[in-house]
Amino acid sequence: MRLLILFFSISLLAAEQRPNILFCMADDWGWPHAGAYGDDGVKTPNFDRIAKEGVLFHHTYVSSPSCTPSRNAVITGKYHWQLGPGANLWSVLPIEHESFIHLLEDAGYVIGQNRPKTWGPGKIESWGKHHGKAPAGDTFKDLAEFFDKTEAEDKAFFFWLATSDPHRGYKKDSGAKSGIDASKVHLFDHYPDSLTVRKDIADYYFEVQRWDSLVGSALSLLEEKGKLENTIVIMTGDHGMPFPRCKGNLYDSGVRVPFAVRWGKNLKQGIENRDFISLADVAPTLLELCEVPVPKVMTGKSFVNLLKSEQSGRLEETERPYAIFGRERHTPAQEKPNMGGYPSRAIRTQDFLYIRNYRPELWPMGAGNGNTNKPGQWYSDCDGGPTKNYIIDNKDKDPQAKKAYELCFAKRPAQELYHLVKDPEQINNIAKDPEYAAIMEKLDQQMLKGLEERYDPRAKDPLYGGFDVHPYFGGGGGKRKAKK
Predict the structure, then answer these.
(1) Distance of CA 398 to CAs 192, 388, 393, 402, 480, Å?
(2) Which CATH architecture is the domain 2-307 placed in?
(3) Cα–Cα nearest to 331, from 66, 64, 61
(4) 184, 40 contact by CB (below 8 A)
(5) In this prediction, what percent of the chain has a pLDDT beyond 90?
(6) Closest C-alpha among 353, 352, 412, 365 to residue 247
(7) Omega within 30 of 0 (cis) for the link into 340
(8) Above 60 in pLDDT, residue 11?
(9) pLDDT band, very low/low/confident/very high, at 311 (cuts 50, 70, 90)
């Protein structure tokens, strides 16, 4: 593949004309937590600027709502279920899967990152030895050091700007102390309206705002160096926020992410696109923009035509009629001796969300009885925190908390169907309603076809167990903190 890239490099743009790329990815930042999406409880002036001066995407979905598989889909241009152990959190990425960032490097780009979470968490030693370096190259303190210590000043560059924000844990009351009004935070309908929950979300907002400031610093540096106008800037997150029924879940609160792109005068300002795109589409899109051949093994689909359009709205209703995504093992959180995950797939159209839970006898967020595979696990597919504690502690005392517990932690049926026009928050499962039986069957077949086209082993064998045998190198996760 690399020889092929070098062969074709003679036809690439001249070095001074190639676009630079600044790819900015937060850790656990989900939709709709940005000012550009109408959330007035959080201040994201830099994301809003990118959206205003470029293209704001309203329907961007991850391949999987878990860090490692989501990021693997970005760097490989393949859906996570194609990646073997790379479909799971805290595992390994097989050496046969290439990073599109390396393909840019082969074509003459200088590459780098500011922290080693382009991929992961997991183990990458054998992959790195085979490919020569990490997926986004060497690690630098920041973008300024990248310029100081490389040839990026004179050559086209790719830089992955990463952060641990807004991943847990949070400093308690950091949101309130920074001036965030807990009464204005976006409260999903699956939460009880509790001050504890609102303050927890405010703490999350504090880290979202810190992340936005980091991106702002990078934009300022690019402006100072006169590089901003020829730099493709993408700002997004790897999945939903680390709260119940968000991260690790196939609802919009778990798989839908902020996404905006800026590229100076090359893109019309203020475009708002409403087509369905996947983070697996990022690699082929950037390769096409940089005139680097897109490997045929990539199942992601370039959205260059959407970026370059001067129209807002849905432009490819027939070509992009849905988003498709799923999940495998997040943590080995089921009751012993089951070391597997909670396998699920979903299809999201304009009007419906349909989910297949292949093992409904299992716990969607892991077991809560302590009889699990790692010490201290407690619904460990859901990150620990005040919201999780509040819901579980009050499920027998407060009707709102009881409803939240059923939605967030209780076992789920094999099929879920949500009418998004009537139920945008995806709360009321209508899968058993005879009125929607034909629609559900159509969505099931549409999803199956999409999975087959994207080489998902579960398309032919819904109970495929191959993902559950791969190593897991992480800890227990989701542990309950002792009460004071």
Answers:
(1) 9, 14, 10, 6, 20
(2) 3-Layer(aba) Sandwich (3.40)
(3) 66
(4) yes
(5) 90
(6) 365
(7) no
(8) no
(9) very high
Confidence band for 484, pLDDT divided at 50, 70 and 90: very low
pLDDT band at 118 (very low <50, low <70, confident <90, very high): confident
Q: Measured between alpha carbons, how far is 32 from 133 in angstroms, rounded to an integer? A: 35
Tell how strand 157-162 and strand 110-113 pair up.
Answer: parallel
Alpha-carbon span 424 to 249, nearest angstrom: 16
- 3-class DSSP assignment, residue 53: coil
Looking at the structure, give the CATH architecture of the domain made up of residues 323-469. 2-Layer Sandwich (3.30)
Q: φ, ψ for residue 62 (rounded to 5)?
A: -80, 165
Residues 434-461: pLDDT tens digits? 999 999 999 999 999 999 999 999 999 9
Span(s) in the chain for CATH 3.40.720.10: 2-307
Q: Six-digit token pair at 256? A: 């839908």
Domain with CATH 3.30.1120.10 in the chain: 323-469
Query: Helices in 113-153 by DSSP H: which ranges?
Result: 125-131, 143-149
pLDDT, position 374 = 85
Alpha-carbon gap, residue 255 to 277, rounded angstroms: 12
Query: Crossing angle for the helix pair 45-52 and 195-224, nearest 10 degrees?
Result: 60
The Cα 11–Cα 116 span in angstroms is 32
69 by DSSP, 3-state: which?
helix
- Sequence letter at residue 460: K
DSSP string, 391-413: HHHTTTT-HHHHHHHHHHTS---
pLDDT digits (tens, 9 = 90+) for 286-296: 999 999 999 99
Max CA distance (Å), the chain: 69
Residue 121 CA to its chain's centroid (Å): 14
Tokens read off for 75? 């760097």
The tokens for 364 are 């969607």
